[in-house]
Amino acid sequence: MAQDIIKTHDINFSYRPFNILATVIAYNGASIAFSPYGHYWRQLRKICTIELLSVKRVQSFRCIREEEVSSMIKTICAREEGSVVNLSEMISSLIYGIVARAAFGKKYKFQQVFISAMEEILHLAGGPSVTDLYPSIKVLQILSSKKGKYERLHRKTDGILQDILDDHRNRKGSDYCEVEEDLIDVLLKFQQDNDLQHPFTDENIKAVIQDMFTAGGETSSTVLEWCLSEMIKNPKVMEEAQAEVRRVYGNKGYVDELGLHQLIYLKSIIKETLRLHPPVPLSVPRENKERCKINGYEIPAKSTVLFNLWAMGRDSKYWNESESFKPERFLNSSIDYKGKFFEYIPFGAGRRICPGITFAIPNMELPLANLLYHFDWKLPNQIKHEDLDMSESFGLTVRRKNDLCLVPITHINPSMCV
Ligand code: HEM
């Protein structure tokens, strides 16, 4: 059915439901993720794939990723040997830090307030919404407590983003040059472009920047958290992954992006994690414009369609030993996540497939390879690996319910290296 919807009826199902989140947070549907299929969305999508998240642009952020990861590794090393590290917190702050520097060009004073507000929005968005179930009862929208919360958070994030935009406009020459062009620079350039079919206001820019945080922050950090959890639960996988990364980087003393393409086993660990723990388990909702028939069912126009990626990834009809964590299944296999294999679509598929794959992959591979290269990991308080709690939280993204806290044992200390 996923194939039927995303392949055969792709255009018809390329719309998104227009809910409170889209109205209040996404500037009336001005963001890439929430705008309805049409000219405006096509324009944004083009800017996004050709400019914002192109391979070249993502490569230009390499130094940001390497610096942020190296700083995380040094922080872990500086701790007293044997002390417990909250990896969930560290990873989340690392990924948001990378996205923020790529988007804003440098660290801003209010960056953390912005990130916390974004996290709160995602948390709120995960809960049930009566107004979305009964959209025609308008009074529910007025009475909704969520709406008020969203409006309060939106005022906060909007003010911060506007300050950052204005700061970019007013800066002189090479005031800050951590990267040649950050994402706001790119979008401001488009604002000056008179050939655009749709004018590009500050609101549009802010909506797109918000997309990068909501879609690009929690997703990658959630995957990393589950990768490490699964490796702790499956020590043989951890050993093999460590052996691979230590073989590839040898005595270099650090893991940079140059050798990442050689980490074949590590890549299959990420794929297997995306199968068992897709960070957006119900994908991003789609909506159909016109009435149609799918698998014998009449689907009325404007139905909200959810894909249960979590269940698809665990379906024994498609996967051997579907509940077991077996990265080997992806070695020598042509199955990937780019939207061609409909039983495995953690990034979605079709016209609205996630445009952030090229950015997400190094954001996950580099930290993971570093954590495996520099440290061995064990559970605190003599907890056995098979007893690690794997409960999931409830939300738009499904993270671990309890933070992943581990004890690192330094294998290669970065301060010892050149
Ligand atoms: C592991 C990381 C990620 C996962 C699993 C993921 C997953 C998804 C999924 C399932 C969708 C819905 C696709 C559909 O409707 O078919 C989506 C959409 C989207 N993602 Fe991602 N994503 C990730 C990282 C990122 C990153 C790093 C960015 C950008 C910085 C990003 C930007 C977007 C945007 C803008 C959309 C909306 C696309 C549209 O509506 O046209 N994502 N993502």
From TrEMBL:
Its main location: membrane. It is found in: Membrane. It comes from the Eukaryota. The keyword NAD does not apply. It is a single-pass membrane protein. One of its GO terms (molecular function) is heme binding. SUPFAM superfamilies: Cytochrome P450. Heme binds at residue 354. Keywords: Heme, Iron, Membrane, Metal-binding, Monooxygenase, Oxidoreductase, Transmembrane, Transmembrane helix. The keyword Aminoacyl-tRNA synthetase does not apply. GO terms for cellular component: membrane. Its cofactor is heme. Belongs to the cytochrome P450 family. This is Cytochrome P450. It comes from Lupinus angustifolius.
